[in-house]
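[Meeting: bench + compute handoff]

Bench side (C.D.) handed over the final construct sequence. Compute side (W.E.) agreed to return the predicted structure before the next meeting so the bench team could plan truncations. Sequence as handed over:
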Amino acid sequence: MPGKRSRGVSGEDDIKIAFTRAAETAKLLQHECSLLLELYRKRESFPVEVAEESLVSVPPPSSQLDTGANLWRLHSALLQCHALLERAIAREDEELGGGEKGEYEKRREMMKDRLSYLLNHTEKLLKATD
């Protein structure tokens, strides 16, 4: 019908929005990860070289896998990263006490929240590609 959106167009728009949000969140998360690493380095008195090295690398998407498989691989890595971050936070809180939260602790929580947000969007994209 004229003037009405079809389900396909709306679904495509939803996928584009989810993809855009996921990409923007990933860029922001990468920046915040660098800031968090710098705060941790200063807190633990590590030399500057520790913060300059890339501690985590993600392989580029494989041309031999379809989009859904590459997205699943990324989502799986994000799930593992989220679990590791939650364990690290719990361990730090347990060993160092819950005490007053400084900039490091606030950024750590913000990263965990943004990672959850990114996981949510990659999950929506996975469902959309099925």
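W.E. noted at the follow-up: The helical segments are 7-43, 48-52, 67-96, 103-129. C.D. will use this when planning the next construct.
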